[in-house]
Amino acid sequence: MIRTILTIPTLARYSAFSVCVLLSGVSAAAETTTMSAVELRQQALKHFAPLPHFKERYERQQADSHVHNNATLVHMGKVLFKDSLLSLRGKNNCRQCHRVMDDRAVSYTFPAFDVSGNGQPAPYNTPAIKNMALAKRFGWRGEHERLESFIAEHLLDENITGIPSEEAVIRRLDSNPSYDVAFTEAYRDDDPDQKGKVYITYDNTVRALAAYLRTAGSQDPFDDFLNGNDKALSKTQQQGLSLFMEKGCVTCHSGALLGTETVVNLGTADETQRFRAPSLRNVGLTSPYLHDGSVQRLDDAIRHRLEGGKASTLTEAEVRLIKSFLYGLTEQGQL
Ligand code: HEC
Ligand code: HEC
Question: Residues 207-221, buried b or exposed e (16+ Cβ, 10 A)?
């Protein structure tokens, strides 16, 4: 056992001190059948990936947006995100549902509230919108594979903004002269030949919002662990991670976001009950849970019923371990 670990070449990177911790961890592990941190990391990297650091995220975002004047675009997205012109009655903005703190988008999710005023709140729980640059599918139903296409629909959703048409969005932005300046600034360089071109378009509005959202990301202890710090997750959290993989949670919750890739039927013949497995990053902060916000406690969300309505087979002790691991997905600082 010990020999196997020592032959792992990356071990050279660890200090003598952490080797000691590692080896003593191995002897303790013999009774509890827990893996060493190194083995666990190797397993985990088959299913997950660390989130990129800010700089890498930003570069990726620039490459994605295909727009010359990227900083202006991101700034404009941020302004739009807070602007209540983007709601029918001028009372709400994106940030009211997707609570974003300190401009670094620590999102808290709430059940969406009644935008239309007709007593009909949005039928879905509001997801956290961090790390959108890495999501594979958008919305609870997972119908959109591009952030832009999701936002384009969301912006005209009667339960979200209540604005009836693309033209109505443009008219609203036209009413504020500073948008004229900002849109021209952001998009002019990409298309210098077209004199008198109108830059305030629906697509350009959506692109700015998407560009801003792609800059909002997080870093948490799980990232540190995947990047090589054995002690970033406690022993309990490491056991939880191991169980998370063993119990098959990774079938649906994998990748850098531990979710957003698969869409599954929640166990009835009813095709309207198909949902995307959500990201579990920051899940310790995002109560209430599930598409309808029906679950308040993380323990209960972990026990959610899947696959033919069968309750998942987890003991109370296993739920506690997994929960402890999931708290390791909470970003550090900025709270
Ligand atoms: C009334 C509350 C509300 C407002 C206002 C609102 N949203 Fe949402 N948002 C939601 C809900 C609810 C969902 C889930 C909808 C669904 O899955 O169909 C969502 C989903 C999203 C998602 C997809 C997240 C994911 O995990 O896939 C993005 C991106 C998003 N909203 C961006 C915005 C932007 C940009 C604005 C401002 C134009 C905005 N939202 C305004 C409630 C709101
Ligand atoms: C077959 C795919 C699948 C598997 C396997 C699976 N999940 Fe999920 N998970 C989902 C879907 C889909 C949802 C959203 C369900 C809903 O909205 O009603 C979800 C929601 C969750 C949530 C709530 C997240 C939120 O923000 O609302 C948690 C926590 C969670 N799963 C943890 C787990 C754990 C722990 C395991 C392993 C024991 C697991 N899941 C196994 C598909 C899966």
Answer: bbbbbbbbbbbbbbb
CATH code for the domain of 92 = 1.10.760.10
Q: What angle do CA 81, 205, 290 make, to 5 degrees?
A: 50
pLDDT in tens, 39-64: 999 999 999 999 988 777 767 766 76
**How confident is the model over 275-320, as pLDDT tens digits?**
999 999 999 988 889 998 889 999 999 987 654 444 457 899 999 9
Stated length of the chain:
335
Range of the domain at 116: 54-214
Total number of domains in the chain: 2
Nearest residue by C-alpha to atom 39 in ligand 2: 249
Which residue puts its alpha carbon closest to atom 34 of ligand 1?
A: 94
Q: Which of 159, 186, 214 is the last residue of a domain?
A: 214
Is residue 139 lining ligand 1, measured as CB closer than 6 Å?
yes
Does ligand 1 have an atom closer than 6 angstroms to the CB of 122? yes
| Domain identity same for 235 and 300 | yes
